[in-house]
Each structure stands twice: as C-alpha cells, then as structure tokens.
Amino acid sequence: MINKTLIVNGIKRTVIVNKDDMLSSILRNGLHLTGVKVGCSEGQCGACSVILNDKLVRSCITKMKRVPDESTITTVEGIGTPEKLHPIQAAWMAHGGAQCGFCTPGFIVSTKALLETIPNPTREDVREWFQKYKNACRCTGYKQLVDSVMAAAKVINGEMSMDELMFKIPEDGRIWGTKYPRPSAVAKVTGTCDFGADLGIKMPEETLRLALVQAEISHANIRGIDVSEAEVMPGVYKVVTHRDVPGKNRISGLITFPSNKGDGWDRPILCDEKVFQFGDAIAIVCADTEKNAKAAAAKVKVDLEPLPEYMSAPAAMAEDAIEIHPGTPNVYYIQNLKKGEETAPIFDGADVIAEDDFYVSRQPHMPIEPDVGFAYPGEDGTLTIHSKSIGIHLHLAMIAPGIGIEPEKLTLVQNPAGGTFGYKFSPTMEALVGVAALVTGKPVFLNYSWFQQQTYTGKRSPFFTNVRMAASKDGEIKAMEADWTVDHGPYSEFGDLLTLRGAQFIGAGYDIPNIRGQGRTVCTNHAWGSAFRGYGAPEIEFSSECLMDILAEKLGMDPFDLRYKNVYKKGATTPTGQTPDAWSLPGMLDLLKPKYEAARKAAADKSTDAEKCGVGISIGVYGCGLDGPDSSEVRVQLNEDNTITLFNSWEDHGQGADMGSLGTAHEALRPMGITPDQIKLVMNNTAITPNSGPAGGSRSQVVTGQAVKAACELLMGGMRKKDGTFRTYEEMKAENIPVEYDGKWTAPARVCDENGQGSPFAVYMYGVFMAETCVDTATGKAKVTKMTAVADVGKINNRLVVDGQMYGGLAQGIGLALTEDYEDIKKHSNMRGAGFPYINDIPDDMELHYVETPREHGPFGAAGVGELPLTAPHAAVINSIYNACGVRVKALPATPDKVLAGLKAL
Ligand code: MCN
Ligand code: FES
Ligand code: FES
C-alpha cells in the first residue's frame, strides 16, 4: 500500500492505494467520482478518459504507481455542473451528443484536452484526436459529436455566446418537431447520471458482490459441480447452483408459435444437465468483494463430458448431428411464404432470372456499457431487480416462474442504460441476480466485464439466404423465390418470430405479386440469438437488395431505374399482402436521383488504378410494432400544483424515451397552454408504471405515443370547461372529477397466417440509402466516404433525436458491412477484435433528408425511426464496392481479405 496526494478537480485529496490499482478504480470507488465511466477496461473505448497533469489518459489502464504524487486530475465533474455548464457540455446538449450518454463524460473530458491543445480545430483535427485517444461511441455515428466540439470551440473563442448556443422554445410554445434537448441531457453531460455500475458503488455495505462460474466450452453434459473448495474461500457467503434455484430454473420467451417443435422452456438460469454454449452460467459466487467472489469462482470444479459443438446452422442440420435439446429437433420451426400465383411456371417463362446466395453475420451489439444489474429483497417476500431491461413487464413474466417467485411479488426497474441496440429485448442477468438475492436474502450486485458482455449476451442471428427473382425484359419483377436458414444459437426465445420477419421483409419495398419461400430456425451452439436493431430486416433485405443490383446488371439497367420501376406505388402490396401505409418511395427516389447521378460521376472521375470508387444504393422498409394488435398503456395525473405527471414504461436504450414521452405529452396537452417544464416523467418501474410494452420493434413512438396522446386527451376532457378553458386541480377536486387517467392504444393490425400473409404492422418506415465508397486495390480495404439517407419516419417528434437515430444506425450499417463480427469467440471478444467502428471508419459526410408523410395510425402523424437506418445501409455499401471495383461480397463482413481475393479473381 502507498499513499498519494492528488489534486482532483481542484481539491486536495489523500488516497491509500495498491500501486497496481487503476486510477479509474480509485476515482470511482475511492472518491465516488462516478462520472468516470468504465466500459472496456482495456484502453479501447475512452469512456474512462481523464486529464492527468495536462495529458489525456485512459484511467482504466493507468496504474497508480505511474501517477506522481501531487498530480492534478480533471474528471467530468471538474469541468462543469448542472447549475454551471461548461460550453462543451452545453454544446453536447444542443447538438444531441448524448444519446445513451455512457461515452459522454469521456468525450467531454477528451474535448477539454483537445481545445486546450488546439483552440481552433478543424473537423478533421477533431476526428484525428478522437481516433488517437480511442474515444468510441456506439450510438451517434460521431457526426453530432464533432458538431458539438465545433460549437463549443466557437463559444470558448468568443465567436458565439452561450445564449446563442442553447435551444430556445419557439414563440408559439411548441416543442414538437424542434431540437429541444432531451430531459436527461444535463445529467449525462455532467456525469451525474447514475448508470447501473454507479448505483452499485452506492449500494448498502452488506451488498454481496457476485461472480459467475461460466462454461468455457460450447456443448457438454454436466456430470457434476463441486463447490466445496469455493465455499470456504475468504469472504464467500454462498455459492449458488441450479440445486438452489427455488423455481423452474428456466427462462421462457412466453409465446411460441403453434407449429414450433420446442416448448420454449429451453434456457436454464443456471445450467443443470447440459452446457449449451460458451459462457453459459453454471454457478454464482456471492461474496463480500468482487475480488473474493472471482477468486472463489475460479475454485468451483465442473465435471463436463464434451459433446460435438455445432457452431453454425449447416453443422447443426447435418444428418449425424445430435439434438442439442434432446427431444427437440435442431430445426425446430418452419415458416412458409406464399403470396399470389405459383412461381415455378413464372420462372419457367421468365425473360430474365437472377439468383444468388447471401450470408449476414453474427453482428455483436457492442454497447460501451457492459451488462450490469442488481437485486434486493423487500418486505413480505418481495424482490426488486434493477437492470438494463428494455422490456420490464415482459421480462418480469419471462423470469418469475424460473426464479420461483409470484409475479406480484417481483418488481423490475430499468436503470439508465448505456446502449443495448436490442440485446436487452431478452433478459440477461435479471434471473441470475434475482435468484442470488432470493437465496441469500441480501442485496446483490453483478457487473459483467466487457468480455462477458461480448461472449455471454445474445447476438444477431446469422441468416443464410438464397433468393431468386424473375423479371420481364423491361425490368418488371414478376416473381420471387426465397429460402432462408436462421442460426439462432441454443435458445429458442423469439427465434420463430425472427424467422417470420424473413417472410415479412424479403423484397420489401417492391411490388412483387407472386412469392414463394420457406425459412427455418436452427438450434446451434454458438451465441444465443437475441434481437438486434432491425431484427430480421438487415438479415433478409441484404439479400434482396444485393440481388436487385445483380438483376439490374442482367437486364442492362441502372440499379436505380430498376428500383424506381418496382417500388411500392398505389395498388402495390407488401410481401405479406398488406397495403403499405405510405406511398413515399417514388418521391424519395426522385429526391435522391440528382445526388445519385452526381455521385456516380464524381466516383468515376476520382477512380485511379490504386483506388477505385463507386456508389451503391438500397431500399429499407421496416414495421413499427410487435405483430398484430400490439398495445400500450400509460397514465397521466394532474398534480396539486397544476403540473402533470406522466407514468409509462417506455424503456430507454439511449434512443430518447424521455424525449419521446415529453414531446408527445406536450404536443397533446398544448391546448392547455402547459410548458414542457410543467410535465414530470415517472418511467420504467413495474411497481408504479403501467405496461407500455417493450421498447423494441421501433414501436414506442407509435404505440406508446398513441397511448400518451389518449391519456392526455382523457385528462383534458375532464379538465375542459364549457367555455373552453381548463379546470385547476382545486376545481377538479371540488367537482369530484378524477385527476388520473389511463391511456391505452391497440394497433389496428392482423398477425400473419402460416403462409406469412397478413397486415402485421399498422405503421411502416421507409428509407433509401446511398453509399459512396473507395477501395484500395492493393489491400482490398473499403472506406465509405459518404452516406446519404432519405427517410420517411412520418412527422418528426424531436429532430435532434431522429437525426441521432439516423446517424447512429447508418454507422452500425457500415460496421455490419465492413468490419463487425462475433464468429471467432477468441478474436472477436474485445472491441477492436470484433471490428468496432471508431471515428475514422465512419464518414463525417452524412446527409439526411426527411419526407414526412403524416401517418394515419401514428400520434400526430409520427412513425418510428429507431431501426430504419439499419434495415439496409450495408447493402448499399456492398453494392458500392461492386460498383467501384467489380467485386461482389455475398458473405458479410466485407473484410479486406475477401475484397482482395475478389480483385485477384477478376
Ligand atoms: N422519434 C421521433 N419522431 C419520430 C419517430 C421517433 O422523435 N417520428 C423518436 C422517439 O421519440 C424515440 C426515438 O425516436 O426517442 C426512437 O423511437 P422509436 O422508433 O419509436 O423506437 P423506440 O423508442 O421503441 O426505441 C427502440 C429502437 C430499437 S428497437 C433499438 S434496438 C434501438 C433504437 O431504438 N436501440 C438503441 N435506438 C437506439 N439508440 C441508442 N442510442 N441506443 C440503442 O440501444
Ligand atoms: Fe478505459 Fe474503455 S478505455 S474503460
Ligand atoms: Fe455514445 Fe451511447 S452516446 S455510446
């Protein structure tokens, strides 16, 4: 142990530390400066950035022995406070820099150091700086961050006042459609927003710290688990195994389709008979410190009988493959698609046929914040679980029987979440912390490392797709046939639904009268499939969007013209036979046309032998909602001081549920003349907030938004007097009129039948994407130089949020196209290895255009937006590589070796 004197944010502090302790740990655990976030713990994300003696450092890799005595340290807490924001923090708010906000303190500290070094940076200087210091963001696509830095520099240099920078409410008082900063922004930019790990530090002293014993093999029978040595290790309170679980020890997706050959109860909380994948949890060590828990976890002995590991769908489908879940075939669900006439005769007589095979990879979500949660027992056998859940009511029902607790006694609360991108549509550690708290009777806390986040949360399920199209000479698509195989990992939850998405979105955007297809869900031993932004659309639309380009070439047409000819126009129907809810695609293509032509010319002009440049486009369509009559409930209340409280469970991944709620409620209540600061939000706690459904399927703005509107209208109905003015709280009480109203809305939609036909979504989102890419012919490395998107997301609630959704989704599309993967468990288990896109991988030049077609079934005309930007941008990138250099990559990601091999084969 050594002692050190440090000047932290201008205050002299003494700390007693081990010389190998990390600075991040001392700042967070010792000094409670939880604005210092820890993401990767390996120097790869910059979330933990602090300024140490005028130099920017990543505190997670800075050992205390390298921190000189009397060092000065600046963390985000020393830059500004909620009462006195620094211009950098104000700029981050004004430009939408904080989505989930987990990377935000690190970026703000990094910007402080940047502007002290380069007071007048160019955008390129800013990008180089963030690249050099490895400041990574998964939400924003970086553009709004660079915008924020440029604006902050202007204020600091006296070229703009703080007042000019800050958002001002327009004179008409309306915030709908504006850049009103999200309510959580102040806390996020000042580092005062408590994420799960920050709350963990502040939990009571008796809190047990958990460590998992996890499988390091992908498929095995369990012969025995011996905890005897672990149980007597220092600080250990209890080692929990499946034998201790009071309930069914299974997590269920609740609903499986009738023809699913499994019963849906296949996912253990703690493995009992078998290990199904790498990382499966086998035991939980509960101890006084995380260090002791981990040391004891290493002493648990698990006797395993290894079994053949089926690491992809074809392997698990082989004749001699054993059943991963004995009694259920590895191919456990089949989804048919039948629209219009039989397709075989149409193909027989077709002028032109195009056909190919495509593969979309096991994309990892890669939030900067690793999974984290905690649980504590209450009075009368109650239990409360806090986590990153984006479906609190859904998850409560999914885990209660497995844990062994009555649903009425269980409460789920969502902590502020540092990004999920869909992996939290499935419960992860909720049942683990729940069981540990129930068994020990104590508060418990569990924080995954980034390695655990990557290896033991769900991933995008790879699709192997074959698709064929038949067209007339003049480019009219007459028929399509498709076959898709979904590698869903070992657990079936939501796997049939994902396979149905294949039927709903193959060839989406085009009027194809006759379709035949079949998809299947396959159980494997690779990472379990969980939802990932776009859920089915990026997997299936990739194949039809690449095939459109192949078909165009066969027809001798420009891919733009082929799309224009076939996109939805009045009278068209979707692959499920539904009439689209907007006819915006032709107009969106019209808007893009001159840009497309200019881009093609510019690419041809700038191509050389060493660098070939090209342009690719794609169309993306996705539904807003869960299938069929999806519904949501919220509550509003008039308070004694005549303010309003809105209660809902619109979970926040980081997308902006707070802003969505506030913007919609304010627009609904505007007739009352209320200001945004008079609306209070109470969100995401099953004990007090109604079931608004999960924040998945880009459904919340539409479905929960409609419920918010309904509740507000009911309240105003109660408050409205005959003369059109509104009653006060006192007047309501005096007249015995209720001050609390429930709002409910159900989508007018119909689930698909066994042939994939129906009207599953009341509202859809439409997008057209254009990628401009250059390929280095010596290395095969492709670099996207510009992305353009034209989006119809209906009327926009909040422009900052929607822009941020678009930029962030496009960036993830570039990652999916070029770098991201989780196939090799070893190589892909850290951010860099898994191809996380840093700022240099994402172009600064991203152009967004909106066509705001008002939606009949969206609140104030809004559709959703969250998943649209990740439906098909990767197909535009792949099409642009082909346009650049003639290499067509059909299996993602298009890494340099694949492109180079293609170039050599030409
Ligand atoms: N919005 C708007 N105007 C519209 C449509 C939407 O202002 N016309 C706003 C909404 O108010 C909301 C946001 O855009 O703040 C997204 O709305 P919506 O499309 O309804 O989606 P949800 O709120 O249901 O969010 C979920 C969606 C999904 S499914 C994933 S996955 C996802 C996503 O949003 N994960 C994200 N966006 C993400 N963004 C961040 N930063 N982090 C994630 O993990
Ligand atoms: Fe320190 Fe990622 S760089 S937490
Ligand atoms: Fe950057 Fe979420 S805002 S990671």
UniProtKB/TrEMBL annotation:
Residues 2-79 form the 2Fe-2S ferredoxin-type domain. The keyword Metal-binding applies. Pfam families: Ald_Xan_dh_C (PF01315), Fer2 (PF00111), Fer2_2 (PF01799), MoCoBD_1 (PF02738), MoCoBD_2 (PF20256). Signal peptide: none annotated. Keywords: Iron, Metal-binding, Oxidoreductase. GO terms for molecular function: 2 iron, 2 sulfur cluster binding; iron ion binding; oxidoreductase activity. Belongs to the xanthine dehydrogenase family. This is Aerobic-type carbon monoxide dehydrogenase, large subunit CoxL/CutL-like protein. It comes from Desulfobacter postgatei 2ac9. The lineage of its organism: Bacteria, Pseudomonadati, Thermodesulfobacteriota, Desulfobacteria, Desulfobacterales.
